[in-house]
Design goal:
CATH class of chain B: Alpha Beta
Radius of gyration of chain B: 13 Å
CATH topology of chain B: Rossmann fold
Number of strands of chain B: 5
Order of helices and strands of chain A: HHEHEHHEHEHHEHHEHEHEHHHHHHHH
CATH superfamily of chain A: Methylmalonyl-CoA mutase
Shape of chain A: globular
Largest interface: A-B, 46 and 37 residues
Strand order of the largest sheet of chain A: 4-3-2-1-8-7-6-5
Number of helices of chain B: 5
Number of strands of chain A: 8
Distance between the termini of chain A: 48 Å
Helix content of chain B: 40-55%
Structural class of chain B: alpha/beta
Strand content of chain B: 15-25%
Strand order of the largest sheet of chain B: 2-1-3-4-5
Radius of gyration of chain A: 24 Å
CATH architecture of chain B: 3-Layer(aba) Sandwich
Oligomer: heterodimer
Structural class of chain A: alpha/beta
Largest sheet of chain A: 8 strands, parallel
CATH topology of chain A: TIM Barrel
Chain lengths: ~550, ~130
């Protein structure tokens, strides 16, 4: 990127400088990134390789290293979207409105463990968890309650459910929207629908095997976007965040999501679609972790890798279909239950990474993250953290402000190269469902758990209040408790629904679903019908279990 | 030297899938020479049955769902009913507010390990309490 003659001069001067300061004092610590990339004392023009127009270029044009829009936050500030849900749909609706009134610009439904796993509240195994870790969304009535008085045509809603339950939960949402008079063609929002979240991010409870999950994820993408039923929807959000939280590093995080995304594209191409028919609606969800510059380099590298993959691997011509759009969540696993107010600082710094890295949407964690679900006070501080950055710091004045830093450009290249190698490693095992069923990804996760644990115990990774300046657990924070009556409320809700629905008609529809599952036909149309007639998420998932069997993940200790 | 290995059942009551904590602690206990039975997801009856069947000294409950008080109480009630509560050390770990530690200890839990706990402390505690 620099004149060769001038680089020669810099090289000579750099050699002198190196020699002169060879013995300059440096602390006795490892200077490495969180992904173990060794970092040198200094970066200069000598470290920035390649052609500016090819690699960095301008925002709004491929390879989008600098951002997917020409004006970025000068045009529109990122969406402030807090992941939120607890107790009952009614209580969650109240929290959503509270955040909206305070300036939130997008919604995101955190669902409970039963909704994630397709278990109805009448099942005693999961009953104590109704509403304890998210909002229970078991039937269509819950979706009406969740979105009551919320302008879902103007504000986008993210439904955080994975392939095992994305079809029934989203079908309930779409049916609700239709009944409320909204046109599905203009409905905006996102379904997470990420195969890796409920397989290696969290272990699934009585779900089906990865090949069926991949098929369900692709059925949903196919029905919404290329079949044009909900064409403005983001039918999948490849969620590196969830497995990153387990302990893998930034390089693995990107490699996991790209390998997964390619498997989904391949599946849909095999069904006869062209990649152009849908790739511009695929979205991503990444972490903002503790390593400030590495995370920023990661976002820049991600945009370039995606554009390159689309162009080289799928022969995409339309630049719009090479855009890498992503939501970010600050790192819950970086927060502590000791001196929890320090978490506000950690979260603010991580949010800044996401913004300097050009995210489209952001969730900031609450300071009570390591203790309980967010209290209203803690959630408001998390929202205000984003607003301080957007309204007070003026970082939105220009696009990609860190571009041209010798270090940032070098690190962006370095992350890119390492990610490409790691994608190869995954793809050698096979498509993403094979990487799961063979246990490969479980071993990678397991190794990451232990590596990180060793680093923390050796003090190579610092947690203030835990392994440096240790403090006792905080007992002053008001612990937010979810509604203990939620179980009864949800059991009653389902009872009422079952009393009013036409059970014979529904049985018929569910029989058709059995057929679709066996025949490998897209399940969405029939699930739209079933949920409209009052089928619960548990009833749909029980049919998956009946036809495909329950899968035991190959966990590794 | 103990002549018999300490036997530990590591279990996840309920259906919440946060698995890192249970795996990290399991490996550490195994590395420390204990016999580790990894139960994974188990309902209350399964936890108690496999604890009795495997003749364990310790039950570790890994809970991140917020339902720690309910599940722990259910496990303890059933252990008591089966007459084995006094023979087994119960340890609970996960995202558990410190405000709930006294309550858990009151109902019979030997120790609670919240976020940021060092696994070496857990190993030490078990070795101290189970002397064979």
């Amino acid at each position: 990127m620099f004149d060769e003659e001038y680089l020669k001069k810099i090289r000579e001067k750099k050699e002198d400088w190196d020699k002169n300061f060879e013995n300059a004092k440096e602390r006795n610590v490892k200077f490495v990134t969180d992904s173990d990339i060794p970092i040198r004392r200094l970066y200069t023009p000598l470290d920035v390789k390649g052609d500016f127009l090819e690699k960095v270029n301008f925002p709004g044009v491929p390879p989008y290293t600098r951002g997917i829009y020409p004006t970025m936050y000068r045009g529109r500030v990122w969406t402030m979207r807090l992941f939120s849900g607890h107790g009952t749909p009614e209580e969650t609706n109240k929290r959503w409105k509270f955040l909206y009134e305070n300036g939130e610009t997008g919604f995101s439904a955190a669902v409970d463990a039963l909704t994630f796993n397709g278990i109805d509240p009448t099942n005693p195994d999961g009953a104590p968890e109704v509403g304890t870790s998210g909002v229970p969304l078991y039937c269509i009535d819950s979706l009406f309650a969740l979105t009551e008085d919320i302008p879902i045509d103007k504000v986008s809603v993210a439904l955080v459910v994975e392939p095992f339950t994305s079809a029934p939960v989203c079908a309930m949402y779409f049916n609700m929207a239709k009944m409320r008079g909204y046109d599905l063609k203009s409905l905006i929002g996102t379904t997470q629908n990420d195969i890796l979240t409920m397989t290696v991010g969290y272990i699934p409870y009585k779900n089906v095997a990865p090949n069926h999950l991949l098929r369900l994820a692709c059925d949903f993408i196919e029905w919404t976007v290329p079949m044009k039923n909900v064409p403005q929807w983001h039918p999948i959000n490849f969620t590196g965040y969830n497995y990153r939280e387990g302990g893998i590093d930034a390089v693995q995080e990107l490699a996991f999501v790209f390998a997964s995304a390619c498997s989904h594209i391949d599946n849909l191409v095999e069904r006869g679609w062209k990649a152009e028919d849908f790739v511009n609606r695929l979205a991503f969800h990444l972490a903002a972790h503790k390593d400030f510059f590495e995370e920023i380099a990661k976002y820049r590298a991600a945009r370039r890798i995606w554009a390159t993959l689309m162009k080289d691997r799928y022969n995409i011509q339309d630049p719009k279909s090479m855009e890498f759009r992503f939501h970010v969540q600050t790192a819950g696993s970086s927060l502590t239950a000791q001196t929890p107010k320090v978490n506000i600082i950690r979260t603010a710094i991580q949010a800044l990474e996401a913004n300097l890295g050009g995210c489209q949407s952001l969730h900031t964690n609450s300071y009570d993250e390591a203790i309980c679900l967010p209290s209203e006070e803690a959630a408001l501080i998390a929202l205000r953290t984003q607003q301080v950055i957007s309204e007070e710091t003026r970082i939105t004045n220009t696009v990609d402000p860190l571009a041209g830093s010798y270090f940032i450009e070098w690190l962006t290249d370095e992350v890119e190269n390492r990610v490409m190698k790691y994608i190869d490693k995954i793809e050698k095992v096979g498509s993403i469902d094979k990487a799961l069923s063979t246990g490969f990804l479980y071993k990678e996760m397991r190794d990451a758990f232990h590596k990180r644990r060793a680093r923390i115990e050796k003090g190579e990774e610092i947690f203030l209040g835990v392994n440096k300046y240790p403090e006792p657990y905080d007992t002053c924070t008001d612990v937010f408790r979810t509604n203990e009556s939620a179980i009864q409320i949800e059991v009653d809700r389902i009872k009422k629904l079952k009393a009013r629905r036409d059970n014979a008609k529904l049985e018929n529809i569910l029989d058709k679903l059995r057929n679709m599952c066996e025949k490998e036909e897209n399940v969405m149309p029939i699930i739209m019908e079933a949920t409209k007639e009052g089928a619960t998420v548990g009833e749909i998932c029980d049919i998956y279990r009946e036809i495909w069997g329950i899968w035991e993940p190959p966990l590794a200790i | 030297m103990p002549d018999k290995k300490i036997r530990v059942l590591m279990s996840k009551p309920g259906i919440d899938g946060h698995w890192r904590g249970g795996i990290v602690v399991s490996r550490a206990l195994r590395d420390a020479g204990m016999e580790l039975i990894f139960g994974g997801f188990q309902n209350i009856k399964e936890i108690v049955e496999s604890a009795i069947h495997e003749d364990v000294d310790v039950i570790g409950l890994s809970i991140h769902s917020g339902a720690h008080l309910t599940y722990t109480q259910q496990v303890i009630d059933l252990l008591k009913e089966r007459g084995v509560l006094d023979d087994i050390l119960i340890i609970v770990g996960g995202v558990i507010p410190a405000q709930d530690f006294p309550k858990l200890k009151e109902i019979g839990v030997a120790n609670v390990y919240g976020p940021g706990s060092l696994v070496s402390d857990i190993v030490e505690f078990i070795k101290e309490r189970i002397t064979k």
